[in-house]
């Protein structure tokens, strides 16, 4: 009985906090409580979906040329899409200009990295000393190539161009792990630290990559352990799995990869948008 009352109190308190937050952070357009939350993808300012959608149509109607970006009415920064219907692990996306959805970003490097997920990493584990990396706490050292590598990796796996939200989410998890370990000596063993890292990144990546999460986390570790830049890492990886990065993908192999890709249960988090009046 007491537990039920405590749960009711917590729910009421949470509801009160949510209402207060809406009052303190109204929609910048209608100045009322935010209804059906929507965000601009670059500045992350929050609006009512109908308010920002109609604002986008208003701006488009005032310009004779097609608009590729939408300037935020609050901070004036340029954005390329509106993100809305954020429920759990998925959300909808409305691009300001439909042509952006057809942009060609999938390079040979993207194809190479996608193909790597359909083969065993092989001898690359013999190229780098994973135990030494963790023993010497090299995971505490910043990696200036990680963000670029992560973006290309997630683009290859999801076959979506704009993955900045996911990249920053995973980077934030890695930075959180690093800050935690920097605070002072820990009684955790090398293997326990390694497991902590993998568990944290898995939790961050799983909503977006689902079936590929475990391999993706292993690939992050390999890249960090290598201490190589992206180009050098690709060369070493290609040699180890006997791939030629400059070679074209055979049509029969590409069809096979596409079929496997369709069967693998990972989440399409950029769904086809629907317009709301």
From TrEMBL:
Where in this chain does the record put each RING-type domain?
Answer: 27-76
Q: Name one Pfam family in it.
A: zf-C3HC4
Q: Which UniProt keywords apply?
A: Metal-binding, Zinc, Zinc-finger
Entry's InterPro entries? Znf_C3HC4_RING-type (IPR018957), Znf_RING (IPR001841), Znf_RING/FYVE/PHD (IPR013083), Znf_RING_CS (IPR017907)
State the PROSITE patterns in the record: ZF_RING_1, ZF_RING_2
- Location of region: Disordered: 1-20
Q: Which Gene3D superfamilies match?
A: Zinc/RING finger domain, C3HC4 (zinc finger)
Q: Name one GO molecular function term.
A: zinc ion binding
The annotated regions of Acidic residues compositional bias extend over 1-14
Protein known as:
RING-type domain-containing protein
Q: Which organism is it from?
A: Aquilegia coerulea
